[in-house]
Amino acid sequence: MNANELPMNFHLARRAQRMSPSIIREILKVTERPGIISLAGGLPSPETFPIEAMRAATDRVLRDAPREALQYAASEGFGPLRDWVADHLQAQGLKAEASQILITTGSQQGLDLVGKVLIDAGSPVAIEAPTYLGALQAFMPYEPEFVTLPCDDDGPLPDGLNVTTGARFLYVLPNFQNPSGRCVPAARRVELVQAARTLGVPIVEDNPYGDLWFDAPPPPSLAASWPEGTVYLGSFSKVLAPGLRLGYLVAPAELVPKLLQAKQAADLHTPGFNQRLVHEVIRDGFLRDHVPAIRTRYRAHRDAMQAALVRHLPPGCRWNAPAGGMFFWVEGTPLLDAIALLPRAVERGVAFVPGAAFYADHPELNTLRLSFVTVPPDDIDRGIALLAQAIEETMPVELRTLV
Q: Which of 249, 271, 286 is the C-terminal boundary of a domain?
């Protein structure tokens, strides 16, 4: 709907005009068709949801604190859950007090709060290329000027921060990034933090996938090296259940009051029942056994997709097998247009996300994101075979003869 289609007397704010639909959400509608193999959505596998643990915890919460669980709650979050998050992060080397933690309605809300509190119209914000689409959507209404840093397979290049003087922050996903799957190595993390500190550019570190490593845990967080200059975002969606919409934000103490005020204006508080439920599930060490089981499952799916890509994709395609997370990032030949490829692939019975959606500017049209965690290994192989056929059909005739 544009301004000319609005009812009389309604006028869109400038920020609303900058909002756009999520291409991923639109593609997910297509995947509801019978027979479509969806490699598109960044959804955790529902086979990993701890249904019985949730059911038992629900009974205990409603038995022991029913009125408190169903009442309005503190905007900061449920105190015991904030304590748990602080202990969990400190065990990973990130020293944070519970008073620095806000429980958010998914880590997506954390992104919105950061944008609301830190971005003015025209403010430069440094980002990776590619980067998380949801972050672009969260920040865009606050009218930033995105500054895209040069990147390689190891993430943002520290020297690229030299062009971000005055940036409100650098937004980065160092662990198994959505969409690229890359993990920033330890030495690069040190260099990034050093460059950011020297230039006075704060960091917003988004870490929804850090627990989903397959062979070795990722290096320490950026926030562990520079807690006073970093806002850290975490999530329970990937290790428990996304339907609970539960995440958390850790910020320097001086910044917490404004983020809290922004949250109060947004939703008063994250659902207290959900917070108590999650705390009841995890408080006695449930995740120690649950998360390794997720890793084992996802590693098998990762291996299946790697084998399928090797088996089926035509020459000229490039990818790196991720060491964790949920995504492969594929670069086709320079002549491939993944946006044009998508409807042909859907006709054949497979869906993916074109990579152009993950760029603030200068999109690389020959890229695509593939999710592997919700599809059985046999279907992964069949889906990649169908994708390869669609790619070959879209290649110029002179190149097909070389495949």
A: 286
